[in-house]
Sequence to fold (248 residues):
Amino acid sequence: MSQTTKYRTAITVAVIAACLAALPAQAEETAPARKAASKQENIGVLTGVAVGAAAGGPIGAIVGAAAGGWLGDRYHKQAVARAELAAHLDKSEADRTRLTHNVTELNGSLAHEQERGEQLDLALNLTDEVGTNVTFRTNDDSVQPQVMSGLLKLGALAAALPDAKVHVDGYADSRGSDAVNEALSKRRAEAVAAVLASSGMPKDRVVVEAHGKSLATAAEGDMDGYAFDRRVTVRIERAGSDAVARND
Fold:
């Protein structure tokens, strides 16, 4: 081996040793300015040194170390970017799943409310087949406690229908004068209308009429018939519809 070759080999070994010794120092000395060198960057430096030294001696080792470090750092950054993108995609997928679940729940709620609306319309269309007597004692215009619940439910139903009106008609039996029975039947109808209003039904959608004894049907002396004549009827009528809810 010539003296020149020995000299170049010694320099190469020295450069390699210096590069290896500089790796930890690089991470420590530059810590305030940049993060520690990544594993890929260190591998790139070592690989660059070895390849550069084999190809170009000391100068090649230095150039190889620089190129290897750059390639290793670039690979590390790409790996970090891929990891961040994967995490972002996972979060986006979780958000999409949650949004889909929320939309499903909303559709279910809308379907349930639509079904309830259809049931309400059906119930209103069928209530003309249901009758309840709101009766009164002789010469009395007070609503009995046992009929309050039904009237409150009917008033709440009418209040929930913005296109509905309530017709309240008061009647009296055939005993007594026309004037007395006219006033008595009106007070009875107004008492029932007050109960409906207390359930939330607007007063401007309640129509009150008094019929006195004009429509009494009981025969003279028929006490049971008189009780039936002392009544108030309630009808829910919707605009543009023939459906009528009765509470007789």
Notes: The longest strand covers residues 231-238.
